[in-house]
Amino acid sequence: MTLPNMKATLFGATGKTGKYLIDEGLKRGMDLTVFVRSSTPFESPNVRIVRGELADIDRVREAVRGADAALSALGPTAVPHPKDLPITRATQAIISAMKQEDVKRLIAVSTGTAADPGDGPDWRVRAPALLIRLAMPSAYRDIIGLAEAIRDSQLDWTMVRVAFLKNHPASARLNVGLYGHSRHTMTVSREEVAAFMFDQISNPEFVHKAPGISTG
To answer: Where are the domains of the chain?
Structure first.
């Protein structure tokens, strides 16, 4: 549950999932800050915007200062994906800024490609992960690097692992749990992802966990 007037900082909010994060946060009456790259043409009268580069730690600190949580929808999008692990480095910068500003709650989108030690065998997840590893090695390394940075962060983190993201409306049921132990489909709506991420701000159930979520 989130309470009105809670503060959240969003990263990756100008992407396809970001729109749903902004809409969900505003619907809940939250005070949102959106970190936007300097070159990105994003404007909104309903959120606080901090412009800069994720390598600029002072700007990232400004964005997270006073927040109850940071939510990240950062992930590989470019093809071919750069080899210098830009998502991992961005996540490390966010973590560093959060520690300096004493912001402890981090909720980030991840995928089944970043396996959890508690996952069981599920070839519907393992097969796409293997394909990504072979066909898109730079993206694969960045996905793994992001997950490792978060697990090592000492923050109160939750990674929300998703498969194929869709734009359809939220369903009446959401599957939640580790792969190989919980029933999962291969799709989830961005609306469902946004709602689940905001639900985790005040929910301790999945702290230091990486549940998969999918449409029921």
So the answer is: 7-215
